[in-house]
Design a protein that fits this description.
Homodimer. The protein contains twelve helices and ten strands. The two termini are about 20 Å apart. The protein is of the alpha/beta class.
């Protein structure tokens, strides 16, 4: 069974948190499987920074025919976020007011703005209950915000390698990447390829935070003691930069890195702790032991302030990317999570 592609068009003005607005927007999303008779099998996935709605592709260890979330039992939905470049409204989309692409004029969006669009789509689809809301990294930020805004909407909440507020360390990494984009002399041009060389460098910088010292030591060390140039680590950085460049653009990367920086569950509320306490979903928080971008201290902090919660720490060589690479470990943790829930006699359809 293949994922079905859909496009939702919202034709009203959408007011953004920071004061600007979109004169309508589009959301590209994909679904897999069918909603059952009592609509108790809906799995909603929130994707990460450069992810897309094809969750069966980038999280295939969790989603697919033989995976824990499969189309024979579940209705799986994933929406490409606004600001991105996979069919939803973003910087390269046509601004209905000017009839030209937004480019640099695309407004600043926050995690709450993204969640607001998901809410609009949810209501359009007449989904009243989400069995499980799951996301990692930027996707986890969305899932937490949504679970706070609508505490009775989702029965289960699973978040991986994410945080309650984006840290100074994370902001610094993002700012450094934006500086690399700014250094590209084409940045700011009204051209889809503007900032391409800068984006390539930015992604190479990001890889240092997605992995870690041990990852590079294990995978990029030289076999020949006489090597003086063309190091494995050098070609790896070039490869990763080009790989993203082939599928993304600098404008969306800039926009969504700013969106990630905006994440703060306590903004305009009593406190971060109080906000987390509002979550009613049965929650699993998953950390990756070697994650230097979203260190496990951040997931433990989240865990300490949610009422009905379990914590699992995955051992991985792959740092932050472990939540995408170690899907067999993530799946095992999720199975244990639902098994524990059943032991507590809390009903679930998983």
């Amino acid at each position: 069974m293949r994922m079905q592609e859909h496009l939702f068009k919202y034709n009203k003005k959408y007011k953004l948190e920071l004061g600007e607005q979109l004169n309508g927007f589009e959301l590209s999303y994909r679904t897999l499987g069918s909603i059952n008779e009592n609509a108790s099998n809906i799995i909603w996935v929130c994707h990460a920074l450069t992810g897309n709605a094809d969750v069966a592709d980038w999280w295939s260890g969790l989603f697919g025919k033989k995976a824990i979330f499969n189309p024979n039992e579940h209705f799986i939905i994933c929406v490409n976020v606004i600001g991105s470049c996979y069919g939803s409204t973003g910087p390269l989309s046509i601004n209905p007011d000017t009839k030209q692409p937004y480019y640099s004029s695309f407004p600043a969006i926050t995690i709450r703005d993204i969640v607001g669009t998901l809410e609009i789509l949810r209501k359009e689809l007449k989904i009243e209950h989400i069995n499980t809301l799951i996301g990692g990294s930027l996707g986890g930020q969305q899932a937490l915000e949504w679970a706070i805004q609508k505490p009775n909407l989702m029965e289960n909440l699973i978040i991986c390698a994410t945080n309650a507020i984006h840290s100074p360390w994370g902001v610094a990494f993002n700012e450094t990447q934006r500086m690399a984009i700014e250094a590209d002399p084409t940045w700011g041009d009204e051209n889809p390829k503007a900032g391409d060389r800068g984006l390539k460098a930015a992604r190479a910088i990001a890889m240092l935070s997605y992995r870690n010292y041990s990852t590079y030591e294990a995978t990029q060390s030289e076999d020949d003691n006489n090597t003086t140039d063309n190091f494995k680590a050098s070609t790896y950085q070039q490869y990763q930069g080009q790989k993203l460049l082939n599928r993304f653009n600098a404008y969306s990367y800039w926009t969504l890195s700013k969106t990630m920086d905006s994440h703060n569950l306590g903004r305009g509320r009593t406190s971060i702790e109080n906000s987390l306490q509002r979550i009613e979903a049965y929650t699993q928080v998953i950390g990756v032991s070697s994650d230097v971008l979203f260190p496990v201290s951040e997931q433990r902090y989240i865990t300490s302030h949610i009422k009905n919660v379990t914590y699992e720490e995955i051992s991985s060589l792959y740092g932050h990317d472990g939540f995408l690479v170690e899907t067999h470990k993530i799946a095992a943790a999720i199975r244990a999570f639902f098994k524990q829930k059943k032991k507590k006699k809390i009903s679930t359809s998983i």
